[in-house]
Amino acid sequence: MAILSIHEIQSVVNLAGAERYSYFIKRVADSEKVWALRNKDGWVSALDANGNEVIPVWSHSEYAKLCANDEWKDCAPRFIILQDWLDRWIPGMIKDKRRVGVFPTVVSKGVVVDPERLCTDLNNELSKFEE
Questions:
Q1: Which are the contacts of 97, defined by CB distance < 8 A and separation ≥ 6?
Q2: Which residues on neighbouring strands pair with residue 39, listed in sequence order?
Q3: Candidates 3.40.1080.10, 3.90.220.20, 3.40.1350.90, 3.40.50.720; correct CATH number of 6-130?
Q4: Gap between the Cα atoms of 36 and 108, Å rounded
C-alpha cells in the first residue's frame, strides 16, 4: 500500500466533493481496493437527508482513519478488493436500495451517489488501464 504524505492527505481532504470523487475513482482503479470502516458489528453506514442508508468509502486507509471518530471511534479501516466491490457489493447495494458516500471527511459528508453510477465511473476509469 502506498504511503501518503501529510501534505497529500491535507490537500486531498481540503478538495471540494466533486474533486475528491474524481480522486477516489482514479486511486481506487489504480490500487484496486476500496476502503471502508468496520467494527465488531460489521461495516459502518450512515443515513442521508432522505433516510437512505449510505455506505461510506475511501480510496486509502489513511482517509478512512480520519473519520474513525465520534460514533465510529471503535472502527478501523478495512479494504475490499475492487473486483469484489464491483461483483458483490454493488449488486447487493442496488438490491438493498443503499447508496454510496464517496470520500466523506470530518467536515464534509462526501458525494452520495447511486451504486450504479459509481460502478459505471469505476469501470470507465478501469477501461483506461486496458487501452
A1: 52, 53
A2: 42
A3: 3.40.1350.90
A4: 16
Cα(13)–Cα(36) distance, rounded to whole angstroms? 16
Which one-letter amino acid corresponds to residue 42?
A: G
- Least Cα distance to 72 among 98, 46, 111, 102 occurs for 46
Residue in the structure block whose three cell numbers are 504511503: 3
Give the integer Cα–Cα distance in Å for 58 and 75: 14
Asked if residue 117 lies in contact with residue 72, where contact means CB atoms within 8 angstroms, the answer is no
pLDDT at residue number 1: 60
Q: Where are the domains of the chain?
A: 6-130
pLDDT tens per residue across span 61-75: 999 999 999 889 999
- Residue 108 has a CB neighbour count (10 Å cut-off) of 15
DSSP 34: E
Q: Region of 112 please: left (phi>0), alpha (psi -120 to 50) or beta.
A: beta
